[in-house]
Amino acid sequence: MTMIFGIPMQALFGQLLIGLINGSFYALLSLGLAIIFGLLRMINFAHGAQYMLGAFAAYLLLTFAGIGYWPALILAPLIVGVVGAVIERLFLRRLYDLDPLYGLLFTFGLALAIEGTFRYLYGSSGQPYATPPALAGGTNLGFMFLPIYRGWVVIVSLVVCIGTWLLIEKTKLGAYLRAATENSTLVQVFGVNVPVLLTFTYGLGVALAAFAGVLAAPVYQVSPLMGSNIIIVVFAVVVVGGMGSIMGAIVTGYMLGIAEGLTKVFYPEASNTVIFVIMAIVLLIRPAGLFGRDA
């Protein structure tokens, strides 16, 4: 058996794959958080609950409407994104001119309410969600066995992350979104409906979380606790990447996922804390994060 640094090659690449999968979810979730914070200046503590809502939306679409994975991959993020837009219009909009702490407290309470409702309805145990037949099974790459669905998660998350970055950084819509956060009055002078832009921004960030939830449903069980189990790590990813940095969220998400996976090979006892250790080191050296702008 081929060994690398005294570790069987299959075990090493297997953990690297797990790190890439976790990094895919970290990148999608931290990207949504970075968009909301970067453009709205609001810390969305409900992000984990909205990730869970995406998974449950796919599960409920299948259970009650017979809608399978592929349509749910589009419908569930749209549904949860629209719900997020309604929340922004009715509640969050009233908090923009207040201390950011009010937005954090509101979204934290919203997360508790959503999670509590689903725990009451479905309990704490998870609900299974089958892998779509087209992505079932795996392929032998010689040096490791690659489950097809896991490979799909890595590829599609990377495509969505890059597409979102291009939307925000390279299009006229993205320019309007960025300008609206800097000088909303000036943007309105040019005939742009700033309140609609802000609603779209929050809905987009929430939809990205829900999309990650649909991708996660066949990998993990659909559980009311799945959001609370990942959101603290995602906040650490955002801090390391730089609060509000779109590219920082993407790169750091994958990077820390891989670091976590490799730590499970070389020092398993530290795998649950390595991301927070990296966060502490980065903040000591560069308080604004790897991709953040110094004040």
Descriptive notes:
- Helix content is 69%, strand content 3%.
- The chain contains 11 helices and 4 strands; from the N terminus they run E-E-H-H-H-H-E-E-H-H-H-H-H-H-H.
- It has a two-stranded antiparallel sheet. Strands 3-4 form a two-stranded antiparallel sheet.
- The relative contact order is 0.21.
Write a brief structural summary.
This protein is mostly helical and 295 residues long. It has helices at residues 9-40, 47-65, 69-90, 100-122, 148-170, 172-182, 184-189, 194-216, 231-241, 246-266, 274-285, and strands at 3-4, 7-8, 138-140, 145-147.
Indicate the CATH topology: ABC transporter involved in vitamin B12 uptake, BtuC
User: Main β-sheet: number of strands, strand sense, barrel status?
Assistant: 2 strands, antiparallel
Beta-strand residue fraction: under 5%
Mean pLDDT: 89
The assigned structural class equals: mainly alpha
At CATH's second level, what is the architecture? Answer: Orthogonal Bundle
Number of strands: 4
Report the span from N to C terminus.
52 Å
* H and E order: EEHHHHEEHHHHHHH
What's the total helix number? 11
Helix content: 55-70%
Categorize the overall geometry: globular
Task: Work out the count of structural domains.
Answer: 1
The gyration radius over C-alpha positions equals 19 Å
Strand order of the largest sheet: 1-2
List segments where confidence is low: pLDDT < 50 over at least 5 consecutive residues: none
